[in-house]
Amino acid sequence: MPSDELVAALKDRFTSYMKPGMQMLCYLVPGADGETAPGQRRINWVWYVNTSADDLDRFMTGQTGTRYQSFLPAGYVTEATKLAIQEMAERTLPPLFRALVHALAIFMQPVQDVAAQPRVHGRAFLIGDAAGTILPHTAAGTSKAFGDAALLAEALSGWTASDLLPKDMLERWNMAGTMDLETTAIRGRRLASGSRLG
């Protein structure tokens, strides 16, 4: 649990720290039930660190010995991994962020691009990160999902459930979304590279 002093230092701020091969961000998010009133929100922090393949295998192996591929939940992080991360924080982070790493639950997630996927599957459509995931440095996840949804609504304008799907319009929507995703992915890799991440 973070101290009152730590919460006071972070509230109403977007806080970041960068050095080559490392970037850390901290910001408030809604509470467990969506609360946004002062004192009801939660602290979220993200720490990007270049990691060797061997260390990634070790860090992504949970308490049961299972090697997780995409996400290791907080309750499954081993004590050895937690201690290794806290030790790295002591060596590399300023005091405010060191305190965060010690005070809050840790979960692990490799950061990587996931290639664009076909978006149209019968009458089901993939939008946002479901259609392809890019490095988070663009901060484009919400706008990408919103754009996909708005353009899908445009492609389906006038369509009713009793009609055949407008395949030409959906193909154009699919192609436009894929091109946008690929362009944003390139931008994300450039931003990461500028921080010597990846």
UniProtKB/TrEMBL annotation:
It comes from the Bacteria. InterPro entries: DHP_3-monooxygenase (IPR053212), DhpH_subs-bd (IPR054707), FAD-bd (IPR002938), FAD/NAD-bd_sf (IPR036188). Pfam families: FAD_binding-like, FAD_binding_3. Residues 3-105 form the 2,6-dihydroxypyridine 3-monooxygenase substrate binding domain. SUPFAM superfamilies: FAD-linked reductases, C-terminal domain (SSF54373), FAD/NAD(P)-binding domain (SSF51905). It comes from Roseobacter fucihabitans. Transmembrane segments: none annotated. This is FAD-binding domain-containing protein. Residues 110-165 form the FAD-binding domain. Gene3D superfamilies: 3.30.9.60. Signal peptide: none annotated.
